[in-house]
Write a structure and sequence with these properties.
3-stranded antiparallel β-sheet; about 290 residues; alpha/beta; binds adenosine monophosphate; about 20% strand; 6-stranded parallel β-sheet; globular
């Protein structure tokens, strides 16, 4: 493990470096992040370090994926700690471009945008208009910069993973997209950079999302095949604590409704706890 990673702020230099590495026969793993790294991010980096010779962690708080009332300015940016944590997990290259480096005309609107129809439209897409266009656009740009590689994304953001997979197929990127399991606190709360916003009582309440999802899973395991009934079982746990934005029980790949439930099914929730909007999901295969 290197303790001195290569740090790039210039994306042209990053691209040239990765091209040169591939010429030498080395494989590249790409881990896109917005920084404020925690053990969830570290698990992606560790997986990349196990698979690939060169492990690139990108740290970029992407303004395109924040709504006008969201926390772009307030989003934590502890760059030195992030670099240390990424290297500790096995990163060999850190890319931390500025907004102007990624979007040269900024703050003028970015003219070109990637929109992934269907899979991006419900749930987070409905609650956060434009969010997935911003995600797809920045990931497309990172894939162009990264070149042929494996790219690692967390299942914690299941809909984002589905959007990225669809975009990769549709636009023909030479990238293998790899989903990695959600890392949780001992009480089940999914690790998230936004957990830092939680007050002590909110932190205590937040694991109810995972508890609700587990009850939903148990309902499916007990034989329930109605998505509405499974969603109601999840809501019965969550709603005494917080009113969720949504509770969805859908096909895991397309995120489309499936009734009766069959195949790979995903249960997804979102809810606001004070300043933090939290999301979580779990999956089950019905055979
Ligand atoms: P972010 O910095 O929030 O954009 O996240 C960067 C990547 O880390 C995304 O692919 C996320 O899905 C992933 N990630 C975030 N939290 C977790 C977690 N608790 N477990 C696994 N992956 C995560």
């Amino acid at each position: 493990m290197s303790t001195e990673p290569l740090l790039f702020e210039r994306i042209a230099e990053l691209r040239a470096h990765l091209d040169a590495e591939r010429v030498r026969g080395r494989t590249v793993g790409l881990v896109p992040t917005m920084g404020a790294l925690h053990d969830g991010h570290a698990s992606l980096v560790q997986r990349a370090a196990a698979d690939d010779d060169v492990v690139v962690v990108t740290i970029f708080v992407n303004p395109l994926q924040f709504g006008p009332t969201e926390d772009f300015e307030a989003y934590p940016r502890p760059l030195d700690a992030d670099i240390a944590r990424a290297v500790g997990a096995g990163a060999t290259v850190i890319a931390a471009p500025t907004v102007r480096e990624m979007y040269p005309g900024w703050p003028l609107p970015v003219a070109t945008s990637v929109r992934v129809a269907g899979v991006s439209e419900r749930m987070e897409g409905a609650s956060r208009p434009g969010h997935f266009d911003g995600v797809a656009t920045v990931v497309a740009k990172l894939f162009h910069l990264g070149g042929p590689c494996r790219a690692y994304f967390g299942e914690k953001d299941w809909q984002q993973l589905a959007v990225v997979r669809q975009m990769t197929i549709d636009l023909g990127f030479p990238v293998e997209v790899i989903g990695c399991p959600t890392v949780r606190e001992a009480d089940g709360l999914a690790l998230s950079s936004r957990n830092a916003y939680l007050t002590a009582p909110e932190r205590e309440a937040a694991p109810v999302l995972h508890r609700g999802l587990l009850v939903g899973l148990a309902t499916v395991r007990a034989g329930e095949r109605s998505p509405a009934a499974v969603a109601a079982a999840v809501r019965a746990i969550i709603e005494p604590v917080v009113v969720p934005d949504y509770v969805e029980v859908v096909d895991a790949a397309s995120l489309a409704p499936v009734n009766p439930l069959r195949g790979d099914v995903r249960l997804l929730v979102a809810a606001r706890f004070g300043r933090a909007r939290l999301i979580d999901n779990v999956g089950i295969t019905i055979s």
